[in-house]
From TrEMBL:
Domain of life: Bacteria
SUPFAM superfamilies per the UniProt record, alphabetical: ALDH-like (SSF53720)
Record keyword Oxidoreductase present: yes
Coiled coil: none
Pfam family, one: Aldedh
Protein name: Aldehyde dehydrogenase (NAD+)
InterPro entries: Ald_DH/histidinol_DH, Ald_DH_C, Ald_DH_CS_CYS, Ald_DH_N, Aldehyde_DH_dom
Keyword Chaperone among record annotations: no
Residues annotated as domain Aldehyde dehydrogenase: 33-477
Amino acid sequence: MSPMFEYAPAPESRAVVDIAPSYGLFVDGEFREAAGGRSFKTLSPSTEEVLAEVAHAGAEDVDAAVAAARRAFASWSALPGSERAKYLFRIARIIQERSRELAVLETLDNGKPIRETRDADLPLVAAHFFYHAGWADKLAHAGYGPDPRPLGVAAQVIPWNFPLLMLAWKVAPALACGNTVVLKPAETTPLSALFFADVCRQAGLPGGVVNILTGDGSTGAALVAHEGVDKVAFTGSTAVGKQIARTVAGTRKKLTLELGGKGANIVFDDAPIDQAVEGIVNGIYFNQGQVCCAGSRLLVQESVQDELLEALRRRLSTLRVGDPLDKNTDVGAINSAEQLARITELADSGEAEGAERWSPACELPERGFWFAPTVFTNVTQAHRIAREEIFGPVLSVLSFRTPDEAVAKANNSQYGLSAGVWTEKGSRILAMANRLRAGVVWANTFNKFDPTSPFGGYRESGFGREGGRHGLEAYLDV
Ligand code: NAD
């Protein structure tokens, strides 16, 4: 189907952000080379252009960063909460002031549309710092005792799908509670974390309170295993999360894990179809489906299945896939060649196992990593595409007849991170929410995030909560 309108190109200027040819590690308030002199390149996934060369931290750098965080902990944790809050407010305001630079940088390094970095990632990043700034002097009223104490040095390892937002989810509560931080961003998206290091300097944050080590899985493994660390917070794949749990087991370290998901988006026959279609699109094509809480399984009541699928296909035919810096783009690039290969392999398995594959007509750019929005119908619960996390723009559609069947199918997963319910009946929303084994249940909406609301998983989606009053517990000695 041809689009109703032709859109003229509307590119955001990449000149608003300066990218240096190379970056060092941020330790003790200064940038420095990796002790071993190693580095790696970070690419723009939409063009495969090299954006910068980044230092690769090894064991010696991990030692230095943890030692710097330890030294800084004494004075940072002794500050009155109202003083720590001032730094967090300052960071939040600088992020707002520099949000255009950061949005462009994040889009270049990650491949997600500028519309998302500008309208979702960056406002949420600032909101997380504002929100936690507000907690810093009120911890005695958070429900964790009259004088809750910080844990010490937090080792934080984050993925590439929301690079700066995952940083904010980790750094803001840690600092508000009086901890110091060593953070390792993902190897494909280090640039916004390095920009954040500069924001910390601009805010006058004392050296060593936030340290940023770029590197790969080996850097992350050395960091979480370091004996000078008191707390480990990880967001990423379930496989790596299990490895980290084994490393940390039997030590004094406190651990939180935010892992994968296979969220069910459940549409009942009384749901407003057009609204549900928007929620389905937002649920699985937002950020190219590279979202741990994506609504990757659509469960639709059989009586409205045909009508819903027809409306969904019509809507998908209007999605604009392409240059992430174009303000009209809905679906950008996949983050890396490795992730594209993973998505391709799983989608191919769907076809091989007998599901029916459909994508709207769309021209994909020649260079870069791209995957067309895809819908699978005739999916059974045994198919890999119904069980495994694809982490890409691929929707698996299953049907149900009764609420019981919907609950049974939704809960038939090793994961338990998110779910969505679409219905006109408030009583049904509450009944479903009680029975769904998911950390977050959205009703007549999807992928809504707010710093005041705790987020986290059940089962193999991990444990611990981030955000809200509940999220503070992970950074306090309670
Ligand atoms: P990944 O687990 O491979 O990598 C995540 C981070 O861990 C990266 O920084 C990586 O360098 C580091 N790492 C890799 N091996 C490590 C090791 N042995 N020890 C310590 N650190 C190590 O995951 P990914 O492919 O980058 O990210 C995608 C996954 O993240 C998906 O499964 C997704 O569901 C999950 N995710 C979950 C959430 C959540 O909040 N639950 C949010 C975003 C992403």
